[in-house]
Amino acid sequence: QVQLVESGGGAVPPGASLRLSCSASGEAFDKYIMGWFRQPPGKEREFIAAISWYGGSTEYADSVKGRFTIARDNAKNTVWLQMNNMIPEDTAVYYCAADHNGPIDRSAHSFDYWGQGTQVAVSS
User: Fold this and answer.
1) How far is CA 120 from CA 7, 13, 75, 95, 123, in A?
2) Strand ranges across the sheet with 18-26
3) How crowded is the C-beta side of 29, counted as CA atoms within 13 Å?
């Protein structure tokens, strides 16, 4: 098992940047594909980005491609989501998730472990 804790959320104006962090503990971090999802107010949880075990492959939702970057450091048991040029539609609770099986699957149900979420709000 792996335990996940997100941090770095907050309130920012449009055009700003935020970096979310997800720290993992428990089973070896490099056994997991890591992903970020978000749940906007009143909407379903949606896939944002995922990264393979050693970072060789990444995938992004079309809505964030070119603005968000996912990265990981297995030595630090941490995955990050760098969010640039943020827009109000990015407002959501952001979740970190771990998937024990490959390849990268954008479906939330394929991820085995989840963090508690961190709130991000983008408004002027």
Assistant:
1) 10, 11, 27, 11, 10
2) 2-7, 18-26, 78-83, 68-73
3) 19
